[in-house]
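Aim 2 progress update. The chain analyzed this quarter is reproduced below.
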Amino acid sequence: PLFEVRVLDGGHRHYYELKNLMAAEANGEILVFLDSDVWPRAGWLDSLLVEYDDPDTSVVAGQSFVGPLDSTFARVLAAGWFFGIEQPGGPAVPVRECYANNISFRREVFEAHRYPEQPERFRGQCNQLALALRQAGITILQARDACVMHPPPDGRVDFLQRASLKGSDWNLNWRLGDRQKYLACLIYTSPSPRDS
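Predicted structure tokens:
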């Protein structure tokens, strides 16, 4: 089969620690990360993997956007939230930033550039990793047809929790306590049949 899905016990690890753990447990040459709270569009996986036909490709991110835009709150949020509104598809393009909820790496690149260890309530590891990759001369491609829809926050409290985790409001983080939980999934890919 093209891929194998396993469920691992993450213990009490936080979001990025889970990603690092799952990558260490993976058995393929291409690591693909997809969070459990996003909805992939048809063709998502193929759109990520086809970019690895080029042996110089090391990192391929997909496009993450807020949706569905079925309320005023969702539409306003999408206009200024970090995921934004869905952009037109097309050929892969180099980007400066990426999101951990929809990204893939060649194994050797991820092993050399894992998500940085930070306090549980810090959510800037995506930006730190993207910067480290750029400094190492590694291009991040965005496969614009590898789309996932991320639901908007579920009300005011969820909005404030997510906003504080993206930003640096440590006081709010401290008061919110442990209510914010994250789930992460990893798809373990085997070499593409095209490589045979």
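The chain has a mean pLDDT of 77. The two ends are 13 Å apart (CA to CA). These observations will guide the mutagenesis experiments scheduled for the next reporting period.
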